[in-house]
Amino acid sequence: MKKFLTAAVAAFALMSASCQSVESTKVDPATIASSGEAVAVVQCVALGLTAIFHFVTITEASLDTVINKMLVAEAKALGGNKVQLLAAFETPKGGLLFKLAGNIVMLPPAAAVGIAVK
To answer: What is the structure's pLDDT at 68?
Structure first.
């Protein structure tokens, strides 16, 4: 029973180790050059959790999560209708070199930055 409890606590700690962060600031439309009327600048970062050279994904951090679920949702909450994407990044997990760089436990990040526009 002690081994099961220890394993359950360790699994919960590993699953909660990944995190998501959203930073934003409202801006004056006259000071930011964009394709529309700028409302805010939004930055989103998510950390996933993988194990054994990225073969086991415990918590995923992907561009889909960062852009669609975090960046667009925050932009709409700040009053924007669309997002002008400025930058996006995800740690590659495929290919032999990227898998070998994954180590036993890894926190691969995904990030996106955009301007919320009306």
So the answer is: 94
Instruction: Work out the angle at residue 25's Cα, subtended by the Cα atoms of residues 78 and 59, and round it to the nearest 5 degrees.
Output: 80
Within 13 Å, how many C-alpha atoms sit on residue 19's CB side? Answer: 4
Average pLDDT of the chain is 85
H or E segment and range at residue 53: none
Average pLDDT score over residue span 10-26: 75
Each as own residue / partner, the long-range contacts of residues 72-76 (CB below 8 Å, 24 or more positions apart, any chain) are 74/22, 74/24, 74/42, 74/44, 74/116, 75/39, 75/40, 75/42, 75/114, 75/116, 76/116
pTM score of the predicted model: 0.78
Residue ranges per structural domain of the chain:
18-117
CA dist 59 and 70 (Å) reads 16
**What is the three-class DSSP state of 16?**
coil
pLDDT at 92 over 90: no
